[in-house]
Amino acid sequence: MKNEPQEDVFSEKLDLKLWGRVFRHALPYKKLLTPLAIAAVGIALCDASFALITRWTVDAVAQQQQVNLWPYATVYFVAALALSVASGCSSMRRAGSPTT
C-alpha cells in the first residue's frame, strides 16, 4: 500500500483569482485559443455521446433477442469520426506555421 501513488487533493471552491491570471496571460493568443476551445467542446460532446450510444445498444439488446446492430455501429462510427475531426481540426490548422 505504501507504493501506491497519492491522489491529488482538490479544494471545493473555484479560485477566481487564478483563472483571472490565466485568462490575462492567454488574451494575446485569442486567435489561437478560440479554435482550441471550440474543439474542446466538440471533443467533450463526442466523448459523452459514446456512453449514450452504448446505453441505447445495451437497452435494445436487453429488450430483444435478435437486434440489427448495424445502425448502432454506424452511429458509433460517425461519433468516432466526429471525435477525430474535432481533435484534428485545432491542431492541423496551425501545423507548420510558426507563432511566437
How would you classify the helix and strand content by structural class? mainly alpha
| Number of helices, counting only DSSP H or I runs of 4 residues or more | 3
Shape: flat
Average predicted local confidence, pLDDT: 80
SSE ordering: HHH
* Strand percent estimate: under 5%
Residue share in helices?
55-70%
Specify the biggest β-sheet.
Answer: none
Question: Which features does this protein show?
Answer:
100 residues; mainly alpha; flat; single chain
Structure description:
With 100 residues, this protein is mostly helical. The chain has helices at residues 16-26, 30-63, 70-93. Helix 2 runs antiparallel to helix 3 (70-93). It is flat.
Short description:
The chain is mainly alpha-helical and 100 residues long. Helices cover 69% and strands 0% of the residues.
Topology:
Blueprint: H1 16-26, H2 30-63, H3 70-93
